[in-house]
C-alpha cells in the first residue's frame, strides 16, 4: 500500500484539488494530512477528503519536518510518498506504478524522486531554466557522486522500513530537510532519480520572492544542514 502524506499549514486554496488528484489512483492507498495549526479552512477540507488527519496540538509552530514525521507515524503503507499540497501528479496511475515497480525490482532502492516542473499555466522561462538546472544537478549527485539528492520536498517516495531506520526527517532543520533526508538515505541504500515521470507544482515561493533569493536560501540551508546539522533560516515563511 501507498501512504500519501501531505504536510499542511493554511492550504485551503490547493488541498482539495490535490486530494481529488490522489483519489484518481486506482491502487491501494491512504491519504494522510498532517496539519500544523492552520487558521483557514484546511482542516475542514482535510476531514472531508483525507483518510487520516493529524493535528499539531502544541502552541509552538511545527516545522515541515515535524509535520511529515507526524504523518509518517500514522502511515500503514510499505511506501511513503511525501507530497506538498500544491503538487499535481499527471497520469497518476502510471507515475505511482512506475515508482512501485522501481522499488520492487531493486530491493536496494530506499528513496525515489522524480522530475519537477511548474504548472504550464503559470510557468515562466525562468522556471523552466531553473528546473532544467535543478533536475540536472540531481542526476549529477545521485548518478555520478552517489550522494543522495532531491530536487525538493514536493514529491519524495521513501521505503517505510528505511524511513524508520533513519528516524524520519531531522526536526532540527527548518529548511533543506528534504535534501538531508536523501543524503542520509544514500548511506543505507540507493536513492534513485526517475527521469521517466514528473510532477507539477506552482512555484509559488519562487514567484513571490524571486528565483535569485530563493536559490540563495536553498543553497545556504542545504550546506549548513550538511555541515552543521542546522538551518541558516530561523523560520521558513509561509507563502500561499
Automatic annotation (TrEMBL):
Gene3D superfamilies: Spore Coat Polysaccharide Biosynthesis Protein SpsA, Chain A. It is found in: Cell membrane. Residues 3-112 form the Glycosyltransferase 2-like domain. SUPFAM superfamilies: Nucleotide-diphospho-sugar transferases. Keywords: Cell membrane, Glycosyltransferase, Membrane, Transferase. GO terms for cellular component: plasma membrane. One of its GO terms (molecular function) is glycosyltransferase activity. It comes from the Bacteria. Pfam families: Glycos_transf_2. This is Glycosyltransferase 2-like domain-containing protein. The lineage of its organism: Bacteria, Candidatus Tayloriibacteriota.
